[in-house]
Each structure stands twice: as structure tokens, then as C-alpha cells.
Amino acid sequence: MRRSMTNFITGFAEAWSLAKPYFGSEERWRAYSLLGAVIGLNLLLVALNVVLTYWNRDFFNAIQVYDEPTVLHLLYYFLVPIKGSSLPMPGFAQLVVVYILIAVYAFYLNQMLQIRWRQWLTTHYVENWLSDRAYYNISLSQSRSAVIDNPDQRISEDLRDLTTNSLALGMDFITNVVTLLSFVFVLYAISGSIKLFGITIPGYMLWVAVLYSIVGTFFTQIIGRKLVPLSFNQQRLEADFRYSLVRVRENPEAIALYRGEADEQITLNERFQALRDNFWAIMRRTKLLNFFTIGFTQIANIFPLVVILPRYFAKAIGLGGLSQIPMVFGQVQGALSWFVTSYPELVTWRATVSRLYGFREAVSAARIASAAGPQRGTPGAALTLENLTLTLPDGRCLLDHASLTLPPGEPIILTGPSGAGKSTLFRAIAGIWPFGHGSVTPPTGTILFLPQKPYFPLGSLKRTVTYPAIEQNVADDAVRTALTDAGLESLIPRLLDTDNWSLILSGGEQQRLAIARALITKPDWLFLDEATSALDAPSVTKIQATLKTKLPATTIVSISHHATIAPTHRHLTLSGGALVDA
Q1: Nearest 10 degrees: CA dihedral of 57, 60, 65, 71?
Q2: What is the dihedral of CA 273, 275, 277, 278, to 10 degrees?
Q3: How far apart are CA 192 and CA 194, in angstroms?
């Protein structure tokens, strides 16, 4: 019980740390204005409910004693238009209109605050995730341990759930607090006193409501505390299953060529099985919780009548009091039992907060990790490595205290056994590898890295070719020329088409398209990480000639597994942790 309550208290602290940046941001005045309006409108709804309870009491008291004038007088307030109102309708109808307007705008402004808060959070979470290559460092850390899963889900769904559920639960809690403060004194005043074991207890119905709620809260916590970790796991398993489906969608050709449908089905079934098993555990625990909470709620409907009937038969209260006390008791007991009735929503909210808090902490750690690894020197004319040591995340050494200077203008070929660390060396030169020490002094000017498998952003073919430049900043003619030089002139008519180009283009066409990017960018240094491995030898020779002709001022550094090296190239070999001139 204590540990579970501590878990929720920790959740509230974490939730505040997630919400505080927005309510202290440049949008804070608008946020507080919307929040204040929503709270104010909800409080008005509570006030109307309080008024109606008194009207209800007086109305039934008058009916009990057949007091026709009082009954007509009370109905008058509902049937006669309110003074000063221009609405041509009875007073009751006007109250209904006011109630509807308040309820509608309370909900509308609540939604407005939700989307503004979510927009701000999404912008800042995406920015922090992409800054300092946090997304990349997180992917590296996951290879060592499951630090964080499915960042896409945490940004898209968890942020949505955080804003929606926080406001819903927050408004519900505030409404219940105000309801409690509004009705607690009413219940104390109208319930009278009772003598128990010779002790007179004033306002005894209030203390009955408190005791009833405490018992309900205690047993709800005992029964439902296991739902928090189950809910957390359910969100993760749902995202894992969806990710497996996306993998099939993004790699249909490879799966079809391998005839891998059976294996993919096994994977999908296994992930769904884990999802289903966890959901069954949630169902079983929720069933137990529902037995108690539903029974608790149903008993609460009749319980105050059972307790108050002795005073009614003792003629200490009238029919109006008998009808009012259960209503007021229900309001007080419901407010005190907020934790009981809201427990399922609190469990889901707690899991969401925990996932987002963990994601934020992982992003912060990943951004700090981006400063680790080899130091970056001030860019100079040459590329210089000084005592450079590179390791894998598990500590294995790929490069041991290498020192080297590569002047501009000299074509370079890097070879070595597969897995020796050639691509990792390129990552260190790019400044994105956080494991190792020593220093890398990058060359001045623009640098472009082309990996073996190009990345294709969503959008038109032109955007795909011009990436990472902004497509509007590149003339169509320049793109057409680059595609022609790369041997992709057949794609020119589709320049403005939007499609999934990573599925449409062959491996060789994808690498040619990446070469077209280099022709558009015209970098000072171009690093090719087996960027033509999918092309035949004549095509590779033609591409090399095109790069030499079109990019005469570019220093090209290529990774190759092949022994055939142009005699004009400087040949480096990486093997056994040593980087040497061949």
C-alpha cells in the first residue's frame, strides 16, 4: 500500500516536471488564461448543482405537507423568465441554456488548451530528440540495454495522452475538491447528530462519508496497484507490435525475395502473443478491481438512505431532507472517493507519465553523450587524426592510437576486412561516434557522407534528390542535370511525384540517386562508404569519372573491399586496430 502510494506521489512529481516547462514558457499567459477559464466554468457548473439541491429539498418538503402555494412558488422560479433576461423562454429553460453554454465552452476551451499544450510539447520534444544527435546516441545505447523503446510512440501518442488525461483528471480533481468544499458544510448541517455508545456525534453523515471513502480508497489501492506496471508494459508491447508491422510494410521486396512470410508471421504472432498475455493480465486485475469499485458505487447509492432512515422514522427530518441528504451525501462521498472512481484512468496516466519522463531523461543523457568520444579540433586545411582510439559500445577496440594527416586534393581509398571499423572511422570523422578518445581535426569547407544504403525522406523525388538541402533552394534544372550525370535521366519526368522511393528504386538506382545529391551539393570533401557497391564495374568506373569531371575541387575518400585500387589514389588499410598506408 505504502509503496503503491509512493509510486503515485512520484508520478505527480514527474508529471509536474513535464508540465512546468510549458506553463513557464512564452505561452504561459495564454495557457494560464485558458486553464483559468476552464476551471472557472467547471466551478460554475458545481455552483448550479448546489443551488439545485436546495431547490430539490424545499420542493419535496412542500409536497410532503401538501403545501400547494410553496410548490407553485418554487415552480414559478423555473417557469417564469428570469428578470432582466431578453430570452423569450421560461426561467428553467434559461437555466438549461446557461448550463449547456457553460458545459460546451468548458469542454471546448479544455480541448483548445490540450492542442496548444501538445503542440508546444511536440515541438520541443522533437527538437531535443534531434538536437546533438540524441536520436542516434539513443539507438546506440539500446544496443547495450533497453534504455528506451519506441520514441516515435512516446512523441506521438504519449504526449497526446499526457495532455488529454492530465487536463481531464486535473479538472475532475478540482471539480471534486470544489464539490467537496461546497457540500461538506451542507451535509454537516443537515445530517444532524446521532448518539453512539453514549457519545453524541454531530454531523454524523459527514463522518460516515469520510469513513466509507477511506475504506474504498484502501481496498482500491490494494487490488489495483499491480495495474501500473501492466499498463506500462501494454503501451510498450502495443508499440513493438506496430513497429513489426511497419517493418513488413517498409521491406516488402526483401521479404518476398527471401520467401520470409512464415518467419515474419512467427515474429508478428510472438509479439501479439506477448501483447495479448499482458492484456489478459490487465483484464484479470481489472475484473477484480471492477468487482470492488462497481459494488462500492452501487452500495453508495443505498447506503446513505439506510443510515438516515432512523432519523426519518423518528420524524427528525422530512421527506425533503430524506431526498436531499442522499444527494448531498453522494456528492461528498463521490468527491472523497475520487481516487477510487478514477483509479483506472490514474493507472493509464501514471504509465504515460513514466514513459515520457524516462524518454526525456534518456534524451538529456544522449545529448550529454554527444560531447563524449574523440575531441573535435578547429577545422584546418587537412583532415588530421591524433592518437585516435575508437571502440564499440561494449568496449571492444577497433582503432588503437592512430595518427594521420590527409591533405586536400588527394583521392584516398580505405580498405580492410569486414567489421574492422572502416564505417566507424567515417562516423568519428563526421563527429557522431561517442565511443573512444583522441582527437579529430576536420577539414574546412563542406563535407558530405554517402552511406552504402541511402536515406530517403518522405516527399517528392526532387526533395529526395536534394536532401539534405531545402528543395525550394535548388533549381529544377540543376536536379535534372544531376540525375542525367548519375544515369537516372529516366526519372526526370517524375521529378515532382511523391512516392515511396526506397521501395520503387533498385539498390543501384538508390546509390546513383545519392551520387546525384553529391553532384548538387558539390562538397569540398566527399566520403563514400561503399556508396557504389550495388553497381557493376563499368558503372562504377563511369561514376568515378563523372565525379572527377564534375567535382574537380572535391577531395574524395572511399571505402572499398576490393583490391583493385587506382594508382593515383592514396591507399589506407584498417586492420587489427591499426591504420596504415598500404
Answers
A1: 100
A2: 160
A3: 7
Q: Who's near 403: CB < 8 A, 6+ residues apart?
A: 385, 386, 387, 388
2 contacts: CB under 8 Å, gap ≥ 6: none
The DSSP bridge pattern shows strands 436-441 and 383-391 to be antiparallel
195-231: burial string, b at 16+ Cβ within 10 Å, e else:
eeeeeebebbbbebbeebbeebbebbbebbbbbbbbb
CB 342 within 8 A of CB 169: yes
**SS3 at position 502:** helix
Low-confidence ranges of the chain (pLDDT < 50): 1, 82-90, 143-146, 563
* Cα separations in angstroms, 514 against 72, 492, 551: 85, 15, 15
C-alpha cell at 246: 511497419
The model's pLDDT over 270-281, given as tens digits with 9 standing for 90+, comes to 889 998 999 999
Contacts of 69 (CB under 8 A, 6+ apart): none
**Lookup: cell for 430:** 563526421
Pairing of strands 199-202, 193-196: antiparallel
Please report the DSSP string for 77-139 in residue order.
HHHSPPTT---SS-HHHHHHHHHHHHHHHHHHHHHHHHHHHHHHHHHHHHHHHHGGGHHHHHH
- The one-letter code for the residue type at 13 is A
Q: Is the pTM of this model over 0.70?
A: yes
**Residue 426: helix, strand or coil by DSSP?**
helix
CA angle 461, 467, 473 (to 5 degrees): 90
Q: What is the pLDDT of residue 556?
A: 92
Do 117 and 160 touch, CB atoms closer than 8 A? no
CB 460 within 8 Å of CB 498: yes
Query: Which fold would CATH assign to domain 375-581?
Result: Rossmann fold (3.40.50)
Domain residue spans in the chain? 2-369, 375-581
Domain with residues 2-369, CATH architecture: Up-down Bundle (1.20)
